[in-house]
Amino acid sequence: MSVTQQEVLDVLGKVKSPDGVALTHANVLSAVTVNDGKVFFSINVDAAQARAWESVRAAAEAAVRAIPGVTTAMIALTAERKPGSPAAAPPPAPHRHSHGVQPVSAHRPPQSPASPMSKQSEIPGIAAVIAVASGKGGVGKSTTALNLALGLRDLGLRVGLLDADIYGPSVPRLTGIHEKPQLDDNRKMIPIQRFGLAIMSIGFLVEEETAMIWRGPMVMSAITQMLRDVAWGTLDILVVDMPPGTGDAQLTLAQNVPLRGAVIISTPQDLSLIDARRGLAMFKKVNVPVLGIVENMSYFQCPECGTRSDIFGHGGARLEAERLGVPFLGEIPLHMSIRATSDSGTPVVDSEPDGPHAAIYRAIGAKVRDQLQGVIAAA
Ligand code: ADP
Question: Do 255 and 285 form a contact (C-beta atoms < 8 A)?
Answer without folding.
Answer: no
